[in-house]
Amino acid sequence: MQDKDFQHDTVDLYDNIRKGNNPSWDLYIQLLKSTDFYKLDFSPVDTNKVCLEGIVPLQFLGNDLE
């Protein structure tokens, strides 16, 4: 599909919105005290790293429906 229509995801999104199937998102954050940085074997501020949920749990912040 993508080789013929490079915007198929955008078209699909707008088609669904027109049909009343609005998208929704949940927002989660991960918080870590700066004093705990030394416990990790990577820099938690490095945007190339993924901080696993087992190390720093996700905290639900809300969604667009609330």
Q: Tell how many strands the DSSP assignment holds.
A: 2
In one word, what is the shape? elongated
First-last Cα distance? 35 Å
For the largest beta-sheet, the strand count, sense and barrel status come to: 2 strands, antiparallel
Structural domain count: 1
Largest beta sheet: strand ordering: 1-2
- Give the helix level as a range of percent: 10-25%
Draw up the topology in text.
Blueprint: H1 8-18, E1 26-29, E2 59-63
Antiparallel strand pairs: 1-2
Protein described:
The structure is a single chain. Strands 1-2 form a two-stranded antiparallel ribbon. It has one domain (8-63). The mean pLDDT is 85. The protein is built from one helix and two strands. The chain has one helix spanning 8-18, and strands spanning 26-29, 59-63.
Main traits of this protein?
66 residues, 17% helix, single chain
Summarize the structure in short.
By secondary structure, this protein is of the alpha+beta class. The protein has one helix at 8-18, and strands at residues 26-29, 59-63. The chain has one helix and two strands; from the N terminus they run H-E-E.
